[in-house]
Amino acid sequence: MRLDDPVVLDLAGVTDKAALMDRCAAALALPDWFGRNWDALADCLTDLPEPVTLVVTGWQAYARAQPREWRTAQDVFATAVEERPTRLSVLLSLGEVFGGSDEPPAASIG
Q1: Phi-psi region of 75 (alpha: psi -120 to 50; beta: other; left: phi over 0)
Q2: DSSP codes joined into one string, 41-87
Q3: pLDDT digits (tens, 9 = 90+) for 65-94
Q4: What is the three-class DSSP state of 24?
Q5: Which of 83, 40, 93 is nearest to 63 (CA)?
Q6: What is the Cα–Cα distance from 60 to 25, expressed in whole angstroms?
């Protein structure tokens, strides 16, 4: 796993699934056909054109506001990692911001 150039998925301010899907689409530059649903996200994550380390930041408020959706999102990320372990790594940042050595460490979900 390389952390040189991670893709940051910042979920700060996200309060629902639609906003989560929009952030995923933007952060990962998902194709136009991305249907903004769990199955489409799973398909896109397992079909990434190159290896990606995805660092999810600012997820705590979304997890509190939408616990069932957050569990589903974690399941989708974890399943994609299991299916394509050489193409995708997903890390949850325990702090609000990612980058630099002064930041808290990230916790891996897959």
Answers
A1: alpha
A2: HHHHHHT-SS-EEEEEES-HHHHHH-HHHHHHHHHHHHHHHHH-TTT
A3: 999 999 999 999 999 999 999 999 999 998
A4: helix
A5: 93
A6: 20
